UniProtKB/TrEMBL annotation:
CDD domains assigned: HTH_XRE
Region (Disordered): 46-72
Organism: Salinibacter ruber
Biased composition (Basic and acidic residues): 63-72
Protein name: Transcriptional regulator with XRE-family HTH domain
C-alpha cells in the first residue's frame, strides 16, 4: 500500500530533520535554502519551525528531505 503524504510527513519530525541538517553540516539558513525557494531569513525561520515541530513538512518538503537523506 502506498504511503500517504501525511504518513510521510509523520516520519519527518523535528528531531529527524535537525539530525539530517547536522549530518549534512548546514546551518538552518543553508539547509532552508536547499529546500525552499525563499530569502535567507525566511529559510532560517522555516527550518526553525520544522525542527521545533511547530509546523509539519509539506509533501514537497518531504520529497526534498528524502532526496537529501538518500544522498548521505
Amino acid at each position: 500500500m502506498p504511503i500517504s503524504s501525511t504518513d510521510a510527513a509523520d516520519d519527518w519530525d523535528g528531531d529527524r530533520i535537525e539530525k539530517l541538517r547536522h549530518r549534512i553540516g548546514d546551518t538552518q539558513t543553508e539547509f532552508g535554502l536547499r529546500i525552499f525557494a525563499c530569502s535567507p531569513q525566511d529559510a532560517q525561520a522555516r527550518v526553525s519551525r520544522l525542527e521545533s515541530d511547530e509546523k509539519p513538512p509539506s509533501a514537497a518538503v518531504v520529497k526534498h528531505l528524502e532526496r537529501l537523506d538518500s544522498d548521505q
